[in-house]
């Protein structure tokens, strides 16, 4: 079964001060998109770079997640260090994901320019940082998800089958 990691980065959610709605929004969105069977590897952690790095590494290297999606910690506040953690553990960066997510979010809110989402590759896994607001999560995933299955294909990952009535992945036509 395909494994996908979901990491909510939030001091308050990890301390139980409030419920994690952002991670659940990612899970719900993926359930809408995917018809492949998949298993979530889900964690709520504080805004600590070392913990974020270790969690991503564990999900990729030990849990064999083909995709890891983080939410939270992408703003300009001092404790927002998710992009730094992602960059530290990736072999190669994929800046187009962050660029497209910011461009999409700018259609809805002028402060989207403050977001520092990024994406990168570790081994044969794709890691993507999303903002922390559930509405923004769906908007950003709607924008970038069409490229995700093909990216995973190119890294010899599992073939993610999508509900094309909800999201249409891009895959080149076979000749």
From TrEMBL:
Q: Does the keyword Nucleotidyltransferase apply?
A: yes
Write down the InterPro entries for this protein, in alphabetical order: MoaB/Mog-like_dom_sf, MoaB/Mog_dom, MoCF_biosynth_CS, MPT_Adenylyltrnsfr/MoaC-Rel
> Its catalytic activity?
molybdopterin + ATP + H(+) = adenylyl-molybdopterin + diphosphate
Alphabetized, the UniProt keywords read: ATP-binding, Molybdenum cofactor biosynthesis, Nucleotide-binding, Nucleotidyltransferase, Transferase
Report which superkingdom the organism of origin falls in. Bacteria
Q: In which pathway does it act?
A: Cofactor biosynthesis; molybdopterin biosynthesis
| UniProt-listed CDD domains | MogA_MoaB
Name one process (GO BP) from the record. Answer: Mo-molybdopterin cofactor biosynthetic process
E.C. numbers:
2.7.7.75
Which parts of the sequence belong to the MoaB/Mog domain? 5-151
List the Pfam families hit by this protein, alphabetically.
Answer: MoCF_biosynth (PF00994)
Entry GO MF terms: ATP binding; molybdopterin adenylyltransferase activity
UniProt function note: Catalyzes the adenylation of molybdopterin as part of the biosynthesis of the molybdenum-cofactor.
Supply the PANTHER family for this chain.
MOLYBDENUM COFACTOR BIOSYNTHESIS, MOLYBDOPTERIN MOLYBDOTRANSFERASE
Q: Which family does it belong to?
A: Belongs to the MoaB/Mog family.
This protein is called Molybdopterin adenylyltransferase
Q: Which organism is it from?
A: Aquimarina algiphila
């Amino acid at each position: 079964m395909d494994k996908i990691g979901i990491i909510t980065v939030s001091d308050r959610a990890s301390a139980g001060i409030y419920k994690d709605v952002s991670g659940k929004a990612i899970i719900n969105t993926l359930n809408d998109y995917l018809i492949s069977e998949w298993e979530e590897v889900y964690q709520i952690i504080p805004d600590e770079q070392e913990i974020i790095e270790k969690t991503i590494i564990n999900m990729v290297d030990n849990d064999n997640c083909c995709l890891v999606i983080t939410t939270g910690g992408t703003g300009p506040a001092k404790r927002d260090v998710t992009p730094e953690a992602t960059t530290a553990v990736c072999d190669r960066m994929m800046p187009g994901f962050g660029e497209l997510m910011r461009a999409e979010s700018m259609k809805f809110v002028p402060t989207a320019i403050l977001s520092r989402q990024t994406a990168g590759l570790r081994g044969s896994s794709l890691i993507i940082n999303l903002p922390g607001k559930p509405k923004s999560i769906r908007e950003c995933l709607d924008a970038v998800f069409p490229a995700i299955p093909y990216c995973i294909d190119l890294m010899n990952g599992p073939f993610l089958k999508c509900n094309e009535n909800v999201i249409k992945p891009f895959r080149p036509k076979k000749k």
